[in-house]
Amino acid sequence: MKKSFNIQDAYLNKIRKNKIPVYVQIRNDRTFEGYITAFDNYSILLKEVSGSNPILIFKHSISYIFPTKEVENIQNLGEE
Questions:
Q1: Are 47 and 34 spatial neighbours (Cβ–Cβ below 8 Å)?
Q2: Does 2 fall in a domain?
Q3: Is residue 33 part of a domain?
Q4: What pLDDT shows up at residue 50?
Q5: Residue 7: its pLDDT value, please?
Q6: Which terminus in the chain has less CB density within 10 A, N or C?
Q7: By residue range, what is the domain housing residue 64?
Q8: C-alpha dihedral, 48 to 71 to 74 to 24, nearest 10°
Q9: Would residue 1 count as lying in a domain?
Q10: pLDDT at 79
């Protein structure tokens, strides 16, 4: 049985694998800068650039995730 494509997982995984720094803004307008080290259906583990401990951010609280550099081959996410 073929697994259905999930663009969110593909996008986050590409950012994680390539160690692309991101800005994560949550709903209260607080912004974190760091590297996504892990994620699941409900949360993202972010290693802050300026901090030593990772931050667990629940996905329902995220307004947006903005990579600090270009994510290459973004149009081919579904082919990986």
A1: yes
A2: no
A3: yes
A4: 84
A5: 85
A6: N
A7: 7-79
A8: 30
A9: no
A10: 58
- pLDDT of 74 reads 65
Confidence (pTM): 0.82
Instruction: Give the C-alpha distances (Å, rounded to integers) separating 31 from 27, 52, 57, 62, 78.
Output: 9, 17, 11, 10, 29
Q: Which class for 36: exposed (0-12), middle (13-18), buried (19 or more C-beta within 10 A)?
A: buried
Distance CA 65, CA 1 (A): 31
For residue 30, the domain's CATH number is: 2.30.30.100
Residue 74 backbone class (left: φ over 0; alpha: ψ -120 to 50; beta: rest): alpha
- What averages of pLDDT result for each successive group of 10 residues across the chain (80 residues)? 76 94 95 96 94 91 94 64
Identify the CA nearest to 67 among candidates 17, 14, 12, 22: 22
